[in-house]
Amino acid sequence: MIRPKKKLGQHFLKDQNIARKIVESLGAIVPNVLEVGPGMGVLTALLLQRPDLNLHAVEIDTESVEYLQNHFPELNNRIYSRDFLKWDAAELPELFNIIGNFPYNISSQIFFRILAWRNRVPEVVCMVQKEVAERLSAPHGSKTYGILSVLLGAFYDIEYLFTVSEQVFVPPPKVKSAVIRLRRNAVEKLPCNEELFFRIVKAAFNKRRKMLRNSLRELELEIPEQFADKRPEQLSVADFIRLTKMVET
After folding, report:
1. 56 FRET partner, CA 20 to 30 A, in 158, 214, 223, 226?
2. Mean pLDDT for the chain?
3. Are residues 115 and 237 located together in one domain of the fold?
4. Span 113-131, pLDDT tens digits
5. How many domains does the chain have?
6. What pLDDT score was predicted for residue 10?
7. Whole domain around residue 93: which residue ranges?
8. pLDDT digits (tens, 9 = 90+) for 191-211
9. Is the preceding peptide bond at 73 cis, omega within 30 degrees of 0?
10. Residue 1 confidence (pLDDT)
């Protein structure tokens, strides 16, 4: 069996039971699903067995694309040899779920891409580094709560599903992994300036040890007294929305 070369921090899943649990965690909110970075197709094979799903796959590695085309001919016209982070997904239906074992070193960039497509992506099931999963699902007040906790939490309900051992991968990573699920909430548009909301959240957490009066100084905003002495992890998603509404008027 030809093994695609490891790329972009990817570790290939070899455990069928874990693969099955991941695939079973994906609902059928919409029939179309995009697998990100399928590699050797461990999830692909199981996804193709689900009659309720119409599978597409995006893969940057040409060797992996060739492998997938040879082993899953029924998927050939739905395998896109693209860089997910630069792709506009114009070939895909308007709505599609996302599933995948995300490469560790670009997982945050993948989530920002998903945020940009939030009105097209109702559900995401993915495996990421355990500390990333904990960060995304952390409540406010937690030390691991951060930029993506807030931005994703504004538009998705986030569930930490289960932890995955290092030993189920080839090659084994040095850290544990975890599977999380994101499901789009009912918020079509935030009740504030969304661009400003994103800027405030990013600026606040980029200097997370500072109080907001200092971390947001570069934005030249007048911070309300009730928020000025707080640090970003003390604010919930609703608090960040409220703060944005107060400073934009």
Report:
1. 158
2. 93
3. no
4. 999 999 999 999 999 999 9
5. 2
6. 62
7. 12-184
8. 999 999 999 999 999 999 999
9. no
10. 34
Nearest-angstrom CA–CA distance, 241 and 191:
7
Whether residue 120 is contained in a domain is answered as yes
Contact 197, 190 (CB under 8 A): yes
List b or e across 208-246, with b for residues whose CB sees 16 or more CB atoms inside 10 angstroms. Answer: eeebbbebbeeeebebeeebeebbbbebebebbbbbbee
Instruction: Give the C-alpha distances (Å, rounded to integers) separating 13 from 63, 83, 113.
Output: 17, 21, 23
Q: What is the pLDDT of residues 38-62, one digit of tens each?
A: 999 999 999 999 999 999 999 999 9
Instruction: Tell whether the model's pLDDT for residue 6 goes beyond 50.
Output: no
CA–CA distance, 211 with 227 (Å, rounded to integer): 9
- What is residue 234's DSSP assignment? G
Find the angle CA(97)-CA(193)-CA(142) to the nearest 5 degrees.
65
For residues 202 and 170, state if they share a domain.
Answer: no
Does residue 126 lie in a domain region?
A: yes
Cβ-in-10-Å burial (0-12, 13-18, 19+) of 15 comes to middle
